[in-house]
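User: ok so my PI wants both of these folded by tonight, can you help

Assistant: No problem, let's get them done. Here's the first:
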Amino acid sequence: MKVKKAIIPAAGLGTRVLPASKSIPKEMLPIVDKPAIQYIVEEAVKSGIEDILIITNRGKSAIEDHFDRSPELEERLLASGKQKLYDEIVDLSKMANIQYIRQKETKGLGHAVYCAKTFVGDDPFAVLYGDDVILGEVPACKELCDAYDEFGLGVAGVKYVPSEQIGKYCSLNVKELRKGIFSVSDMVEKPAPEEIISNYAILGRVVLPSEIFSILENTPAGAGGEIQLTDAMKVLARTKGMVGVEFSGTRYDMGNKLGILQAIVETGLTHDEIGEDFKKYLLELAGNLK
């Protein structure tokens, strides 16, 4: 069965990027001229996703507004002869069938995904983490969906993480099947040094079968006192097995101040409108750095 549904959890409080996230959802922080979440939605659409559920919470109505029509703005753009901008704004509301649900309590990623049970039904689905923008020639979500088509198992987007950083993520028990493709048989969320299985961790993208919901129902609170999606996927990996795909794109952590700056700079350098001027500016600036 093809993966046609996706969940984007966007209910986090964004404490790592305060004070900006006090009034602006971190998912709406711009990368040059588009908010982070637009890149994530575009990735899903380019991967063949047709139905998207964005999981929000109180104070994140700006996300819904962004993907809605804006008659006053559209009228002003047309009156000013800005047809290209008008088309871009209107197209935002037509990219996919986007729905919303609120996670009323911040109980973790596993709980957020469980909130999507009715939306998913019995279908396989992708989860694109709202903190993670992944940019590359091939959409990361598509690489995972292709692996799901091939193996029929849950799929995790993985990357190699240095030992000093992997304690922030999870550690996977992997066996390489071919270049960039692994079997995954176990995982540990936020491992202590003695618990590290390998330096491969899940970063930002997974594709899951609907049976994950019955596992989540029986998943107790884990790291941080929250219901961890990793703990449910661990059960899946141990019982049926999962597949790991080392996605080809570059991941930017939009819940991290340095990650935001890296995304802006690297995207700015390739931007059609400002790329060349921005490159000249950076070269001049770098020449004056000490």
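One down. Here's the second:
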Amino acid sequence: MNKDRYERNDRSSRRTFGSKSLVLVLTCVLIIGSAIGGTIAWLTADAGEVVNTFTESDIDITLSETLPDGQTAQMVPGCTIEKNPTVKVEEGSEGCWLFVKITESTSPALDDYIAYAITTGWEVVVPESNGVTVIGRIVRKDDTTKEFGILGAGEYTDDMGTADTGDDYKISWDADQVCVKPSVTEDMMAAISTQKPTLTFKAYAVQLYKNATTEFTNVEAWARAGALG
């Protein structure tokens, strides 16, 4: 009789242990299942993006002249001719070296007929050689004045005779004018019936800075403009 009691207790203990084991196994399975099928919440962050857009830059210039009409004028010895070539750096342009190449005809030689002067503010970059002179100036991006005349006031003494006769003749002119030399003769006029003397202006611009802090010199900048012809 006692033996039966002990046997029942032993079976009960085995059943109890088996139930707890089954619950534990199922719990583990559920935990593993959740880990496989669910979402693991790691810490994350998104800082967004920075987009850089690089825009264009440019230098834009114009060269204009309203006088003389049609860029042609009749020469009268001792008289002035209105002539107003003007160069402008357009708004929004980068800082630049602004150049003007001045070309005098050599056959016939303009210098035999016409005298003129360059207005203040320009500097000679290339001295006259074979009828060509180059002048230049700096124009900064934030300058308020960006339009410049080229021809200035001047005076000229023309040797119309010998030193002892006192035939020298002095003549002056204003800005935006050139002067016909008083010594021009009728024979000189006749000599240009087919080929006329000319005075030509051409404008160029080259960026001022070679890098963030260093400016081109006028000679360095002109070497780059010269490639334009």
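Residues 22-30 have pLDDT under 50 and may be disordered. DSSP finds three helices and 14 strands in the chain. Good luck tonight!
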